[in-house]
Amino acid sequence: MAGIGHKLETKGVIMTLLSLVLIGTGCEDKIDSSVVNPSEGKTVEVTLNIGIADEEDGTGASASPTSKAGSSSYSGSAFEVVSVADVQTKSGTDIPDQLYNLEIWQYNESGNKIGGEALGNVTIGSTFTASLTLATGCKLLLVARGASTDFESLSGKTLSAVQDLKVEAKKSNINKIATNATGNGLANMTYYLLLENVNITSDGKIESPTGKDVRLLLKRLAVKVQLDWTFAQEMTNKGYTLKEVKLCQVPAHYRLVPQTEKTDKWGDVYPSSVAEFVDLYRLTGTELTDAKGTQTVWIPANARGISPYSNSPYYRNKTNANPAATYAEFVVDNSEKKERLYYRVYLGGNETDDFNLLENKNYHWTVNINNANYTNDPRIQLLDQTPVESSNLQPTSNCFMMRPGTNICFNPYKHEAGTNGWNTELTTGAIIQSQKTIDHVEVLWQTKDAGTSGDLVMGYVIDDNNHENLVNLTNGNDINSARIHVKVPVTNGGNAVIAAKNSSGTIVWSWHIWISDYVPVGLSGDITTINRNKAIEAAQNATQEGMVQVYGGISWTDPNGAFYRCVIMDRHLGAIRAGMQTNQLDGVRTFGLLYQGGRKDPFFSSADGTTNEAKTIYNGNGVEVSIDRSFSFTTYQQTIEHPLAFCRNDDAMANKPNAWNGDKAKTIYDPCPQGWRVPSSEYLNNANQTAGGYDQRDGDAKSALFAGFGFSNSSYVTAKTNSDDLLTPGNILYYDGTALHEMSEGKNKSSFPGSGYLYIGGSGESKENNSKKSAFFPGVSLREQASANYRANNSNNALYLWSSTQNNKPGNMPFLEFNQISADNTVAGKVNLCFQLNDHRIYGFSVRCIQDNIFDREPADYQADLKK
Fold first, then answer.
1. Are residues 300 and 211 in the same domain?
2. Most exposed among 182, 342, 468, 783, judged by the fewest C-beta atoms under 10 Å?
3. One domain, residues 195 and 259
């Protein structure tokens, strides 16, 4: 697959992913092998003369003929979109008066620093010297950090560390620069140049691999985007108003060295699909009026490739665009018709297939909104403001699995796990409790369908006080006929939480909407030793867009095992993908959501497998929302009223010690969908441990969910976490995003989000990504108990899974831990695998739901005990 650079070159535009400017006297494309110089490593004084590259018209050579002519072939359509080719005369005033805080750093092929220095302020075009190291095939990075130095000094950093540096665009001094600034007005702009393969010669020259001198021209880091718009008088006459203009899916951060990602469909793109994208502006009211039809801003580069599917302006829509491409959106209302229209314009190098916004370039787009004929233009979307009503009645649980493009309704006062089918937090079974009558329902939060980019998975609400087009309450004061109606649009899936409020605005209950094509099917009928295998096969074949699984331990394979008549989901609760993935976005989609032990409401995990608190959840208007870390909990009831607040108080959780009820029946606080539950598991006390830290007693193992994990003996259960418990398991492999590794290889960690552990001891033995014979557990890490922060040192490496079992400490619960031993503090190639730990319920861990058929288990005395 050709990369962006190659694709753009065929369009007549030269562009390099790392902004390499090699202007010489005919440098060849081919890079010759360098000859090792025995004098390498010596310091030489290199004479430099550094300039600034001319700004480029973003339309440039890749523009379509229509945009160059300044008119659209779709004149007279509902709206016209014109990419304007600005003709500029370069006078030298569009550059800063000098290079502020210039640094030049030299790296070897591995990215380790081998030379360079900070040079301070330098006059553009002046001749000066810098101390570099004699070397061939090295990398050279030149950065003028600007007078206000948004970026810290690069001194002492490896090239990889430089790549990790980022500056939030909205808060940067770059974005405060006037877009028409010249000379000293550009003092705070950052300029840079990365030379990927050059030689530093003994006579103090910088040469290309072919021996040609290299001219040093720094490029402006920021992209300039000008958006102009008109709103036809005819639209106003017909009752339409322009309500909002917004610039969406802009990279949140500037980076000196972009983090590129290889994709099959788009080639090499940057930033990566799991980077943070934000709305740079949303103009409404006075701001929109004062803009007077134009807005010009600085933004970070967003290279989203060339689309072979977008061959005309008409097809330049979300179906054919990269999910993370930057776009402008115009929101048009007609209050009389109760109609809202969204006109979307994807920006880039032309009006058809180029979705790139590149460094040192200026882009100018004009949009003319002519009429409201949305039916014939796929770039315009109608927001249906009709209150949603559905006849698709579903049993009530705390999680509803919905396929994209579907609708449901349910009775909010009922619960499949409640006493006689009622939610006892809201009703007595006969009447609605005081202050629990539902007045209205809201979209509390929702994700987008491509991480921090893409479409909202529930869509836009009508306004802050009216969410009825997405979630609608009917007969809220009638315990029997009350219904909440929910619809979700066609997207690539995600998660949302909807909340029911009383007339005082207090949340009385909330529900998780898990939007995915995944439809798991459990075992049915009376399961015996004769028909079990066929029942498992039938359930797996009936499951859609995924798999249901069984594990290989004695608790699963013995007829008296706790899970003999169960299957378990192939993914974490809230995950949109399962199994080993090969791209970052799908890797993150395996994470699912995180839960505090005993709570029904989820929290998001990580947008990119790191501790970066990227915005990944949004309200009904598409505005970012965050975890509430400030609320002080004192009671369990408050966890119901504040589903987005992270509880940091053990005592509040201890008020409901059996919220998930262990081996007893499923409760109304269980977060799993109808027919599924948080799995219970026997946990092992220290007094029962055998030598080596493992317990082999059949009685415990038959009730232990992860019996046999890490062992050839299916009755073995891990029991503690000290150094005696380090395993080199044969039925667990580590996946690093590229390949599977035996634990004995000592593969300790990966930066790939979606790395994790493959268990091959299920219904077969396979080292393939075969979901019928193996189960994958992504290294999701956790949220800390005291801060709610995502844990850094375990990201992509450790997994924590709750059980529903309660121990003798009301504030604690047991859980499973996969935690591969990292090279910096323990033994490489080992794994800390245990299910005996009892820790604070206020951690945020993953959940994997199991089939809820607890009362079908044998023997009879066990059933009787469970029903007590």
1. no
2. 182
3. no
Q: Which residues touch 179 (CB under 8 Å, ≥6 apart)? A: 224, 226, 296, 297, 298
Residue type, 780: V
273 shares its domain with 285: yes
Residue 835 to residue 284: CA distance in whole angstroms = 53
SS3 call for 595? strand
Pick the closest to residue 383 from 374, 393, 371 (CA basis): 374
DSSP characters for 727-766?
A: E--SSEEEE-SS-EEEGGG-----SSTT-EEEE--SSS--
> Are 301 and 444 found together in one domain?
no
- Look at residue 38 and tell me if it is in a domain: yes
CATH number of the domain to which 269 belongs: 2.60.40
**pLDDT tens digits, one per residue of 542-584:** 999 999 999 988 889 999 998 999 999 999 999 999 999 999 9
Residues 188 and 236 in one domain: no
Helices (H) and strands (E) counted in the chain, each on its own, are: 12, 54
Q: How far apart are CA 326 and CA 347, in angstroms?
A: 6
Range among 7-21, 26-40, 559-573 rated most confident: 559-573
Residues 128, 216: Cα–Cα separation, whole Å: 13
Residue 854 inside a domain? The answer is: no
| Mean pLDDT of the 157-169 span | 96
Q: Are residues 615 and 626 in contact, defined by beta-carbon separation less than 8 angstroms?
A: yes
What is the pLDDT at residue 652?
87
Look at residue 6 and tell me whether its pLDDT is greater than 60: no
Backbone dihedral angles phi then psi of residue 586, each to the nearest 5 degrees: -70, -30
| Backbone angles phi and psi of 606, in degrees to 5 | -140, 145
70 domain residue, yes or no: yes
* 805: confidence class by pLDDT, cuts 50, 70, 90: confident
Residue with the bigger pLDDT between 297 and 864: it is 297
Pairing of strands 191-200, 135-144: antiparallel
Q: What is the number of alpha carbons within 13 Å of residue 572 lying toward its C-beta?
A: 32
The rounded distance, in Å, linking the Cα atoms of 435 and 133 is 75
Name the more confident of 31 and 540: 540
Other beta carbons within 10 Å of 49:
11
SS (H, E, C) 568-589: EECCCCCCCCCCCCCCHHHHHH
Whether omega before 859 lies within 30 degrees of 0, making that bond cis, reads yes
Give residue 761's pLDDT.
72
The per-residue DSSP string of 633-654 comes to --SSHHHHH-TTBPP--HHHHH
What domain range is 115 assigned to? 31-55+90-220
Cβ–Cβ < 8 Å for 323, 274: no
pLDDT in the model for residue 16: 35
Q: Residue 366's closest CA among 306, 313, 322, 299?
A: 313
Quote the CA–CA distance of 771 and 540 in Å, as a whole number.
10
Domain count, the chain: 4
Could you tell me the pTM of the whole model?
Answer: 0.89
Sign of CA dihedral 247, 252, 255, 259: negative
Q: DSSP letters of 230-270?
A: EE-HHHHHTT-EEEEEEEESEESEE-SS---EEETTTEEEB
- Residues 186 and 300 grouped into a single domain: no
3-state secondary structure of 171: helix
Confidence of residue 308 (pLDDT cuts 50, 70, 90): confident
- Whole-number pLDDT of residue 859: 35
Quick one: 197 and 241 in the same domain?
no
The pLDDT confidence band at residue 741, using thresholds 50, 70 and 90, is confident
- Model confidence over 745-760: pLDDT tens digits? 766 678 899 999 888 8
Whether the predicted pLDDT of 692 surpasses 60: no
Mean pLDDT estimate for the chain: 85
